[in-house]
From TrEMBL:
Belongs to the glutamate-gated ion channel (TC 1.A.10.1) family. The gene is LOC117573166. It holds the Pfam family ANF_receptor. This is Glutamate receptor ionotropic, kainate 2 isoform X5. Disulfide bonds join 511-567. It comes from Drosophila albomicans (Fruit fly). The lineage of its organism: Eukaryota, Metazoa, Ecdysozoa, Arthropoda, Hexapoda.
Length: 687
């Protein structure tokens, strides 16, 4: 009846497992189950391979031949190859009773008795004791009693295989279950089996070919499809690959407790395997099984490549912070003032000055305030000057200033090379902590995926904070597909949290995207199976073998790197040349040079004009002194009136410049600059 029910419900496939509590499994008709690889397991008490059992079976066969000699049809229906457990137990019981009775027989005094006599037999207790002392090997194994209970017996664990029922272990009261044939016990007989495999489209793991010429499994291609094909060839099964209806990997609803996606399909036994970029998690492992991971990965951050920081005109000031520049200027002024004061106090800095004119010999200090400023800036610029300190005090100050200038200049030069040659990026975030601590950049992940589950169930405060923000902005944070998340990242101001392997594939093909920070966790991709599936261990062994041979790494390189879709990024190896500096990098130096030249010209012109105006004022107020006193009073008044009306003829700018250059070359006999006489030696009126 049970057999008919199983067949009617079509539950005679490999995915079903049955444990028969009867000890007579070998007496059942199991032809409809052998070749469908149904997992049927049971125990037996009679070992059909035992010598005593074989002798009894031989005797039974001879007896049947004699009894049914005239009716061969009935003879063939007799199952002489097995002994039912009840018959074997009856045989052993009778035999043990006979041994006990034989042992007590010499001690029995038989007396006449009648049917009406109700006096019990006094030898019953002795018979029981002799039976308990019997030790004999019967059809059901060794027979031995202890306190009326049978001990030292064993049950054979048997399993239905394709051609027969085989022993795969045994159970004893002392050692309990012992699997003696693990290969036969765990073997599912996978030849000529077609499995239902579900998947989800995800580049480059599983992709679809569209067209009328592609049907069945030919529609799908990708990294996981190649792995599935290789594993099927190694293990030995066929498969039918199809998409999961709701296009989701599988996540548990915290309110209803229901699963969706591929996990739900496996839990309902609607599929045998689930292949794709499916992450092994604790929650999923509690309801389904996973094979050994074929790829290890972690969660990382996908972000748009930050724009290159534009070079400012005065970027040559970047090697030192603004406060350092302020401190250097302050130190320059302080040291210049210190040198000026110390030089005035030190008698060694006062020297005799011998000008061109030897008539006036004076003593002066070479460190005027302007000279101190000039000496200090010359030392800072590593140029020096014509001023040489004489006193010990000024030498100490100048030595310390020289050491200070050496360190500043060396530090600036070393840091300037890095600032001008290294391309600097404006990167607003560096890791997950930066994401959690800001509000300008939105972030999210794939809905109903393992990454979402990771943040939802995480106990780390940073990730809990990120989950609260994402949960409050579900429309902006979560995406239904990876393509949607990548599109948002390319639009800017959005970071997408995803598995590192998928991120690596995207970054290899889009030079505008990059990975931020390291991995937030460590996990793996595996092939999912229903709970208790016999295929898990066989596929796991195949995956381990493929990893050891390097086949999985070859497939990874095939789909990630060895394609024409990878973008060309700037080389950053040690043989790459440094970027040539452009005008935008050091243009500020030229601006400073031009500004210095213009300022020098303006100052020089200002000095010249001021000096020219002073000379004009002096000449205008100067009165002519006559060397001869032959002018009378009346004439003097007339001359005075004439002089009031007299104006010095204007002199050109070039005449003054010529006089300056002439004096610069004329220091052989005179020290003082020549003065041009602009008034007459003798006052007279032209008529």
């Amino acid at each position: 009846m049970k057999r008919i029910t199983i067949l009617q419900q079509q539950m005679n496939e490999y995915k079903y497992q049955y444990l028969f509590t009867s000890f007579d499994l070998e007496t059942f008709d199991l032809e409809d189950f052998k070749y469908n690889f149904v997992n049927i397991t049971s125990f037996r008490l009679v070992d059909m391979g035992d010598v005593a059992v074989k002798e009894i079976l031989k005797d039974i066969d001879l007896y049947n031949r004699r009894i049914f000699k005239q009716n061969q049809t009935v003879f063939k229906q007799q199952k002489s190859a097995v002994i039912e457990t009840n018959a074997a137990l009856m045989f052993d019981s009778v035999y043990v009773f006979a041994i006990g009775l034989q042992s007590i027989y010499p001690l029995i005094n038989l007396s006449n008795s009648t049917c009406d006599d109700e006096v019990p037999w006094n030898g019953g207790l002795s018979l029981i004791n002799y039976i308990n002392a019997v030790e004999w090997k019967g059809l059901t194994g060794p027979i031995q009693f202890k306190e009326g209970q049978r001990v030292q017996f064993k049950l054979d664990l048997i399993k239905l295989k394709q051609h027969s029922i085989v022993k795969v272990g045994e159970w004893t009261p002392q050692n309990h279950l012992n699997i003696t044939e693990p290969s036969l016990f765990f073997d599912t007989g996978s030849m000529n089996v077609t499995l239902v495999v579900i998947t989800i489209l995800e580049t480059p793991y599983v992709m679809m070919r569209y067209g009328k010429n592609f049907t069945g499994n030919e529609r799908f291609y990708g990294f996981c499809v190649d792995i599935l094909e290789t594993v099927a060839r190694e293990v030995g099964f066929d498969y039918i690959l199809d998409l999961v209806p709701d296009r989701k990997y599988g996540a548990k609803d915290p309110e209803t407790g229901q699963w969706n996606g591929m996990v739900a399909e496996l839990m309902k036994y609607k599929a045998d395997l689930a292949v794709g970029s499916m992450t092994i998690t604790y929650a999923r492992e509690s309801v389904i099984d996973f094979t050994k991971p074929f790829m290890n990965l972690g969660i990382s951050i996908l972000f748009k490549v930050p724009t290159t920081q534009p070079n400012r005109l005065f970027s040559f000031l970047n090697p030192l912070a603004i406060e350092i520049w302020i401190y250097v200027i302050a130190a320059y002024l302080l040291v210049s003032l210190t040198i000026y004061i110390v030089a005035k106090l030190s008698p060694m800095e006062w020297q005799f000055i011998i000008p061109c004119d030897l008539e006036n010999i004076t003593k002066r200090n070479q460190f005027s305030f302007s000279d101190s400023l000039w000496f200090t800036i010359g030392t800072l610029m590593q140029q020096g000057s014509d001023i040489h300190p004489k006193a010990v005090s000024t030498r100490i100050i100048t030595s310390i200033w020289g050491f200070f200038s050496l360190i500043i200049v060396a530090s600036y030069t070393a840091n300037l090379a890095a600032f001008l040659t290294v391309e600097r990026m404006m990167n607003p975030i560096e890791n997950a902590d930066d994401l959690a601590s800001q509000t300008e950049i939105s972030y999210g992940t794939l809905e109903s995926g393992s990454t979402m589950t990771f943040f939802r169930d995480s106990m780390i405060e940073t990730y809990k904070k990120m989950w609260r923000i994402m949960d409050n902005k579900r429309q902006l944070a979560f995406t239904t597909t990876y393509e949607d998340g990548i599109r948002r990242v390319n639009q800017g101001n959005y970071a997408f949290l995803m598995e590192s392997t998928m991120l690596d594939y995207i970054v290899q093909r889009d030079c505008n995207l990059t990975q931020i920070g390291g991995l937030l966790d460590t996990k793996g991709y595996g092939i999912a199976t229903p709970k208790g599936s016999p295929w898990r261990d066989k596929i796991s062994l195949a995956i381990l073998e493929l990893q050891e041979k390097g086949d999985i790494q070859m497939l990874y390189d095939k789909w990630w790197k060895n394609t024409d879709e990878t973008c060309k990024r700037k080389s950053s190896n040690k043989h790459s040349k440094a970027n040539a500096l452009g005008l935008e990098s050091i243009g500020g130096v030229f601006v400073v040079l031009i500004a210095g030249i213009l300022i020098a010209f303006i100052v020089a012109l200002s000095e010249f004009l001021i000096n020219f105006r002073n000379q004009e004022n002096t000449k205008r107020n100067h009165q002519c002194i006559s060397n001869k006193n032959n002018c009378n009073t009346s004439t003097a008044s007339i001359v005075g009136d004439a002089q009031d009306d007299y104006r010095q003829p204007p002199r050109s700018l070039w005449a003054e410049v010529f006089e300056e250059l002439r004096f610069a070359l004329w220091c052989t006999n005179k020290r003082q600059k020549p003065q041009l006489r602009t008034c007459c030696e003798k006052c007279q009126i032209n008529k």
